[in-house]
Design goal:
Elements (H helix, E strand, L loop, with lengths): L3 E3 L7 H11 L7 E6 L8 H12 L4 E6 L6 H16 L3 E7 L3 H10 L6 E5 L17 H8 L2 E5 L17 H10 L3 H11 L3 E2 L6 H8 L8 H8 L1 H6 L22
Parallel strand pairs: 1-2, 2-3, 3-4, 4-5, 5-6, 6-7
Helix pairs in contact: 6-7
Length: 260
């Protein structure tokens, strides 16, 4: 079964997650428990909120604790991060991370962080590879993270992008064609794609067959051509005739040569 359990203050299910961990009989050390400080008002009261989350979860430490968003200001980020560093020093948090940060926000954090984040959790799909505004960035977030030794975990891989009306990634014809060639589902192809990019994935489902399907990601691999085709899908969405976007995306579909 799953050993990486992801929750957050905002999800409202930390009590249930803690009870499930206790009832499972699995040693605490065999589980990677991830939760987040979600409410911006609590960024200035991070220690009290963390203590409350520990009590709700019924555990003595958190494996990965994150800021769920950048919050309202740099002052809020600094105040919360300082407390997270103290809790890390106390052994109550094993690793620090952030969620829904872009490169400029991460660079800002690294300027004042005494203990660097090692983990980032962002929206990652074929249309939004690393964040809602990733397509407008001049540099690939994944390449930057690799240089900084920060691990990406992608969420909502199979869901349409936030803030717009997109075709479901599982209905994309390129994804469906690759899935058919491999005899796998579009969901499996999308999760395998992100794994091969060097990221972690956190699939979720309440249906047993889908849970089994989500776990079957290591019985096949995608070819270099498959990976390049999937990587390039975002350019089909964002490019203009003769101008490929994002700038960092390989022009596998020849959009730079297209003229009206």
């Amino acid at each position: 079964g799953y050993r990486h359990i992801d929750t957050a203050q905002a999800y409202g299910n930390e009590h249930e997650v803690g009870k499930a961990i206790a009832d499972s009989g699995i040693p605490r050390g065999d589980i990677c428990l991830v939760t987040k400080l979600s409410m911006p008002d609590d960024y200035l009261n991070a220690r009290a909120r963390f203590e409350q989350q520990l009590n709700i979860l019924g555990v003595e430490y958190i494996d990965i604790y994150m800021l769920h968003s950048p919050g309202p200001s740099v002052e809020h980020r600094k105040a919360a991060w300082t407390v997270l560093e103290e809790l890390y020093d106390e052994g109550r948090i094993k690793a620090l991370g952030v969620s829904n940060f872009d490169i400029p926000l991460l660079q800002e954090l690294l300027e004042f962080a005494r203990i660097r984040p090692v983990y980032i959790q962002n929206k990652y799909s074929i249309y939004q590879p690393g964040g809602r505004s990733e397509g407008a960035q001049g540099r690939s977030l994944m390449e930057w993270l690799a240089q900084e030794k920060i691990v990406m975990t992608g969420y909502s891989i199979i869901h349409p992008g936030h803030g717009g009306l997109f075709l479901s990634p599982m209905d994309d014809p390129h994804v469906q064609a690759i899935a058919e060639r491999h005899g796998k589902s579009p969901s499996q192809v999308l999760h395998r794609w992100l794994l091969q990019l060097g990221a972690a994935v956190i699939p979720r489902s309440t249906r047993r067959p889908r849970i089994r399907e989500n776990g079957d990601l290591f019985s096949f691999s995608l070819s270099e051509a498959d990976m390049r085709l999937i990587n390039g899908i975002v350019s089909l969405l964002l490019s203009d005739p003769g101008q490929v976007s994002p700038q960092w995306c390989e022009d596998v579909y020849g959009l730079g040569e297209f003229r009206i």
